[in-house]
Amino acid sequence: MVKPLQFKGEKKPRKRKAPDADADGIKSSNDASNSLAVPKLSELNREDDSWVTAEAPADIIGPIIFALPSAQPSCIACDANGKVFASEIENIVDADLATAEPHDVRQVWVACRIAGTENISFKGHHGGSGVLSASHEAISPEESFRCIPTPDSAGMFSILTEREQFITITEDSKLRGNAESMSFNTTLRIRMQARFKPKLKANKESKAQEKISRKELEEVVGRRLEDDEVRILKKARIQGDYHEAILNVRVKGKHDKYS
Questions:
Q1: Which parts of 8-153 are beta strand (E)?
Q2: pLDDT at 32
Q3: What is the DSSP string of 151-196?
Q4: What angle do CA 18, 21, 27 make, to 5 degrees?
Q5: Residue 145, SS3?
Q6: Dihedrals φ, ψ of 57, to 5°?
Q7: Measuring CA to CA, how many Å separate 127 from each of 80, 124, 217, 242?
Q8: Which of 92, 132, 247, 259 is most exposed by smallest CB count within 10 Å?
Q9: Cα separation of 155 and 39, whole Å?
Q10: How far apart are CA 146 and CA 131, in angstroms?
Q11: Do residues 109 and 65 touch, judged by C-beta distance below 8 A?
Q12: Residue 81: what are its φ and ψ, rounded to 5°?
């Protein structure tokens, strides 16, 4: 289930406990079926809601913001009617776009891949698609874009429309989609939530898979393990020869038993 976005400085609402009885003090008949199970540790871990920079087109998915190369740090935003405008960024360190984070839900867009193409659609907070005008419910060719990495600036992109023109920002902070080539005014930085970045997500899943306790290893082997055996098995789990190492430890245990 997609969780609502949270911004810096925003207090998290407290969860209310479900009452054990109804207004008359009588417990519900299906109380047993509604009993709460003890949550697993993995379920208690909070999602990573930090914001990072998209480094490649393949990274761009999920909630994002378009940080613009304007004199005053700003990003693309849209109102409830789909009108797009440049919105000042408040959550930023030393005017560095690589640190930009949204403070207003109107600044957040959801990037979605269009199946069978390299194109991406962008939806505003109200559900409308588009970047120059987020007022369309359905995704047509006009609402699909390509994110082209900027050759001389790592982590920067230019947004190409289906008309083979780039989105640009004018000197008076107006957004246009008619730039014929890449320039400073077409170059922007895309910030995204870390938990959606494929590389970080894969690393997180890999680290979670690498973690295993001594008790779990002993259950797999079927006996108590020495400290050096635990180290060997944990190292093998990281290196990818875990099952072979398990067999070796089991064989060693049998030899020790009959020696």
A1: 51-53, 62-68, 74-78, 84-88, 91-93, 96-101, 109-113, 120-123, 144-149
A2: 34
A3: TTSTTEEEEEPTTS-EEEE-TTS-EEEEESS--GGG-EEEEEEGGG
A4: 125
A5: strand
A6: -55, -35
A7: 9, 5, 48, 47
A8: 259
A9: 39
A10: 12
A11: yes
A12: -95, 0
CA distance 202 to 144: 27
- Residue whose structure tokens are 């810096």: 8
State the CB neighbour count (10 A cutoff) for residue 124.
26
Look at residue 14 and tell me whether its pLDDT is greater than 70.
Answer: no
Coil, strand or helix: which one is 76? strand
SS3 99: strand
For tokens 């949204």, what's the residue? 102
Measure Cα distances from 135 to 102, 112, 143, 170 in Å. Answer: 21, 16, 10, 22
Using a 10 angstrom Cβ sphere, with 0-12 exposed, 13-18 middle and 19 or more buried, the burial of residue 137 is exposed
Interatomic CA distance for residues 76 and 159, integer angstroms? 12
- Bridge-based pairing of strands 156-160 and 74-78 is unpaired
For residue 59, the one-letter residue type is D
* Structure confidence by residue, pLDDT tens digits, 116-154: 888 999 988 888 877 777 666 667 777 889 999 998 888
The pTM of this model reads 0.60
CA 128 to chain CA centroid, nearest Å: 21
CA 148 to CA 11: how far, in whole Å? 37
Q: Give the phi and the psi of residue 136 in degrees, each rounded to 5.
A: -100, 130
